[in-house]
Here is the input.
Amino acid sequence: MKLSKKVVLIGHFGVGKTSLFRRFMDNEFSEEYKVTLGVQIKKKVIELPDGRELSMIIWDTEGHSNSIEDTRKSYLLGSHAFIYVFDVTREETYATLHKDLEYLKKNHAKVPAKILGNKLDLVNEKEIAQHLTSQEIHFDCLTSAKTNKNVQNFFSELAKEITK
Amino acid sequence: MEEQDKLKILKKLLLSEEKEFADSIAQKVEDLTKIVHQKEELSHKVDPIIDDKLDEFIQEIPTTLGPTITEALKEEIKNSQDAVVEALFPIIGKMIKKYIAHEMKLLSENISKKTKQAFSFKNWFRRTKAKVQGISQGDLVLSDYAKPRLIQLFVIEKNSGILLADFSPLSDDTIDKEMVAGMLTAIKSFVEDAFQGGDQNLELIEYELYTIHIQNFYSYYVAAVISGAYNMMFKEVLEDQIIDFAKNHISNKELKNSTLFTKKLKKYFADEIV
Here is the structure.
């Protein structure tokens, strides 16, 4: 039987959601910054360890400037997972994390939300991990769309989790 | 000393300056005459050379200046594409219109010619119909072609945009149906959100020669891609068929099984609508 799941990328503008999206989908990266308007959707078929195939339909939404409540609500409906992306070099992109997670919990209680810190290539991994922990920012993964660090692995793990 | 010699000396003394002036004028006149004559002589010699060079220059313009002018024009067009399109659009539009009208006329005449030659019950019926209605057989054949046709049918989960089932009578697999389902849902969500029409739903999308008929149900919606003239009669029949399928041919349990759903959808919609 066909297996399809909707995964939505959310987060402040300029955190690298589209770069992660392009890195995972097409293994491409560009330094050029283009604002996402509305949403873009792509599909990637992932082979699961048990041999099944998952069509992961990823919705790359436009970034918000204040909180997740600015994101078009209908884009979040029917999701099987959220990926909350923040920029490890810009504190304002994770300043509203706790509030945003509360919002997701309240409105989409059954949908898992993964926290992902991007642009790891610009900082020292150990130092930033310590800094984030001291700020009580609990992340699931630190990635770099530029160098492809942890990107493929993160999505593979997510695929396993949402098909359990 | 005689009187005349004295007068001469006196004249010399009194008019020496004037004489000098007169001499200098005479010299200048002589110089000017020389220059004028020289120029005339020069022009006789130089003019043919200049004419030859000018002819040569005119002939060589395409090779010497051509690339530079072309490059400059290219750059100018590139920098002001909108202006060029704005200027050309009405002209090209008219040309295309004229061309299409002409081609359609030819096509209609061709069809009329061919149908006149053919003997079949269908053609006999069409000929009779054309005679009764007072229109050409070509126009009747064309109206047959403009008939609305179902190109593709998608059944899509309402919120997630996940494709539950699909059917295409033309069996065209060139598009990624799952991505189309996602984008259709995003467009639908955007329109329904943006215009804040409460519980209102997007029901129709038109693009060039196609129409997407959207029919909403509780947990899913059906998007039917139609080619040709989508009219009220066709819309009603299509709506009735989709409702009948949803009510009588698919259960809630079967909604979750996309393979079975697709099989049933194909079986039900295999016959041409209308």
In short: The radius of gyration of chain B is 45 Å. The first strand of chain B starts at residue 149 and ends at 157. Chain B has a mean pLDDT of 81.
